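Have a close read of this protein, sequence plus structure tokens, and explain what the tokens say about the fold. Thanks in advance:
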Amino acid sequence: MPLEHAEAVWLTEDHVFSLTELAEISGLAESELRELVDYGAVTPIDADASPWVFSGKCLLTVRTACRLRVGFDLEPHGVALMVTLLARIQELEAAVCDLRAQLPERR
């Protein structure tokens, strides 16, 4: 089902996007999205399937990639590196929060 620009759609992580839909929504060209997949910054649900489909979780990543590309005038490999590093930082911050929650309370 193609997304219409005039209709409001509630997007969740369960939503799936085609490559074309993801390009339209994110502001990146399909070729840029393919490069992000090649660099490992974005992963289709099934990389061996044709055509590729992406989870709703990818939307945040590709929108961030678009802002990085425009804001810092980065080449695709630079965007992929930044997106990958930002994802790793988020993972590490979550792990630190989990570890802090396990510490005994200080008085």
About this structure: The chain has four helices and two strands. The longest helix spans residues 76-102. The longest strand covers residues 16-18.
